[in-house]
Design a protein that fits this description.
Helix content is 60%, strand content 3%. It contains nine helices and two strands; from the N terminus they run H-H-H-H-H-E-E-H-H-H-H. It has helices at residues 3-14, 16-19, 25-36, 55-68, 76-95, 136-152, 155-187, 191-194, 199-205, and strands spanning 115-117, 122-124. Strands 1-2 form a two-stranded antiparallel ribbon. The longest helix is centred in the C-terminal third of the chain and has 33 residues, at 155-187. The chain starts with a helix and ends with a helix.
């Protein structure tokens, strides 16, 4: 799934803090950033280096328990931000198993690696409920999450939701064309440069 979809889902999850009456802009930002965070490993062991389906969840539970304690060492708003950051990162990591595999053309369904579980020490296979990142159904999920995300956000964060939706729609339009562009680019790269390109990209494009 798109990183933007994950960010919107994380923000929608953090909206619970508003519904419960504990209005915390930091919690909303925590959910938004936590939803996107795992995909920072895109060029370095994607869906393994920063994806922890189990451990993020355990850490999130610990953070929410600490949040409920009256003697928590970390100030409430910051602890809430951390808790929702970890929850959103956990949901992101788990949701990746519902999408496509790691190949550059996930619509072909050739990869059986969706996300790595460090707890189980193995790759979890893709369910392909959402066929690939940038699929129409991926955008549909992003739009569903954007509703509550936009409604409960304010100011800059609300503007960020609109920007993320626009970026998501644009990405969906060019998703498959990007592979053809990457093929043409890699074919022209000199060998010294190719060594800096992630191996899975080079292997799929050659």
């Amino acid at each position: 799934m798109m990183a933007t979809t994950h960010a919107l889902v994380g923000l929608a999850l953090a909206a619970v803090s508003v519904v419960s009456g504990d209005v915390s802009p930091l919690a909303l930002w925590g959910g938004f950033l936590g939803g996107a965070f795992p995909d920072l490993d895109l060029y370095a062991g994607h869906r393994k280096t920063l994806h922890f389906p189990v451990y993020y969840g355990v850490a999130a539970v610990a953070a929410f328990v600490a949040l409920a304690l009256p003697l928590a060492a970390v100030p409430g708003p910051w602890l809430a931000a951390l808790a929702f950051f970890l929850l959103a990162a956990a949901v992101h990591s788990a949701m990746d198993a519902l999408g496509g595999g790691l190949e550059l053309r996930p619509w072909e369904g050739t990869s059986e690696r969706a996300v790595y579980s460090h707890f189980h020490r193995r790759w979890i296979r893709p369910r392909r409920w959402i066929r690939y990142d940038g699929a129409p159904e991926d955008l549909a999920l992003a739009l569903v999450a954007a509703g509550p995300a936009w409604y409960f956000a304010e100011g800059l964060l609300q503007q960020a939701v609109v920007a993320v939706v626009v970026v998501s729609a644009g990405y969906v339009l060019v998703r498959k064309r990007m592979v053809h562009l990457a093929e043409a680019l890699v074919a022209r790269l000199p060998d010294p440069v190719l060594q800096w390109v992630p191996e899975r990209f080079v292997a799929d494009l050659h």
